[in-house]
Amino acid sequence: MRSPATTANLASGFDVFGLALKEPYDLLEVSVSEGRGVSIEVSGYSVPKDPEKNSGGYVALRMMDHFRIERAVRIRIFKGIKPGSGLGSSAASAAGVAYALNKLFNLGLSKTDLVEWASLGEVVAAGVPHADNVSSAIFGGFTIIVSRKPLRVLGFKPPRDLGIVVAVPELEKGSTRLARSVLPKEVPLSDVSFNVGHAALLAAGMAIGDVSLVKMGMEDSIVEPARARAGIVKGYEAFKRLAKEFDAGIAISGAGPSMLGIVELAWRAELSKAMKAIFEGRGIPCQVFETEAGEGVQEV
Q1: Which end of the chain has fewer beta carbons closer than 10 Å to its terminal beta carbon, N or C?
Q2: Which phi and psi angles does 278 have, rounded to 5°?
């Protein structure tokens, strides 16, 4: 199976918006044999092989316990999504395993059910079962977490001309738990209004296929400034200036340190060079993906 990288928040939609990317992605193979328990093999980027410490393994253990699956499950992961990059690496493993177990054991779970199970894997990485990355990894395209209890997810096909640039710096941001710990516990009502307005603008752009509205909606007055002040993202102000220069939407991808740029498809190469230059100008090597919106987990 192929499980996509995802980006969450898109600036104004903290823990609500998610977007699946065409690349990078993980490849997973999940098989069943006699016996019991979960075993994990990993190639590519390194992640824990202990099922209790691996987001995919954790999901497998919880699902097998709940559905009383008394078999041995072997998970092989080619990790193509860099862990700790802000591109939903843990979500890709969790979503891929939830999808595979549903198929292997004919559990009859809906996409929303799969998001609920896959979100448990985020406990390993973030300490809480948030669903923004796993929702887009399951549904594909653009997703909105309308509510958590009960879980309600809406999916939309992004605009055809939506081009995506992701700049992945070679530096460590620390854990997602740390990135969440720096967030303010209280915020001014004016900041809330600002984010609600911009989130509405972004969602409208996704729904009606207008890239210009999506770009305009990628502004945040709460989460991104707090993470920038904490030093989690390098060159944040330079990226925001670049957004104005290129008429692009630029935001922290998830909890960082990667930066996400949204622009019309024809402008990806130019934006890619400029985003890479900001990191490298600070002595930080950087890998850049020029991509577009992707599908959810699928068999290959």
Answers
A1: C
A2: -65, -45
